[in-house]
Amino acid sequence: MTDTETLVTPEVRGASPLRRLAEPARDPGVRSGAVLVGLAVVAFVMFGLAWRGVARTVYVPLQMPWLLSGGFMALALLGLALGAGSIHLSRRDNAIHRAAFEDFVHDTAELAEVLRTGRFSQPARKRR
User: Fold this and answer.
1) How far apart are CA 89 and CA 97, in angstroms?
2) What is the distance between the alpha carbons of residues 111 and 106, in angstroms, rounded to a whole number?
3) Which of 49, 107, 115, 127 is the most buried (most CB within 10 A)?
4) In angstroms, rounded to a whole number, what is the distance separating the alpha carbons of residues 104 and 7?
5) Phi and psi at residue 27, to the nearest 5°
6) What secondary structure letter does DSSP report for 70?
C-alpha cells in the first residue's frame, strides 16, 4: 500500500468522481459559506431588479417604491451577507488557532510528564 492510498478513506477510494467532488460539501463551514455567497448573489439580483424598476418609471414618486423596497433591501441583504461572512471566517480562524494551541499544550504536558518520570529514551544515533 502506498502513502497516497492511506490518505484516502475506504468510503471515498471506490467512490464515483461525482462523490469525490461533493466531499468538501460535507464540511459545515463550506456549506454556510456557500449560503452566504448565495445571499450576496441574491442581493445583486435585487439591485438589478430595483434598477430596472426605477429606470422604466419616468415619474419620480413612482420610482421611490422601487428604490426603497429593492435598493435598500438589497443593500441590507448584502451587508448582512458580508458581515456574517466576516464573522464566519474569523470564527473558523479562531477555532483553528485554538486547536493548534490545544495540541501544543497537550504535547507540552506529555513532555513534562516524560521529564518528570525520567522515562525519556533518546533516539538511536547513526554510526559513521
Assistant:
1) 12
2) 9
3) 49
4) 24
5) -75, 125
6) I
Distance CA 124, CA 109 (A): 24
DSSP state of 57: -
Q: Going by C-beta distance under 8 Å and a sequence separation of 6 or more, which residues neighbour residue 78?
A: 40, 43, 44
Question: What pLDDT, in 10s, does the model give residues 43-81?
Answer: 999 999 999 988 998 888 888 888 888 889 999 999 999
Residue 39 in contact with residue 74, Cβ under 8 Å? no
From CA 33, how far away is CA 43, in angstroms rounded? 15
Alpha-helical runs (H) found in 8-123: 10-13, 17-22, 28-55, 60-65, 73-117
Burial 105-114 (b: 16+ CB within 10 A, else e): eeeeeeeeee
Tell me the percentage of the chain whose pLDDT exceeds 70.
81
**Residue 44: all three cell numbers together:** 445583486
- Which cell is 61 given? 414618486
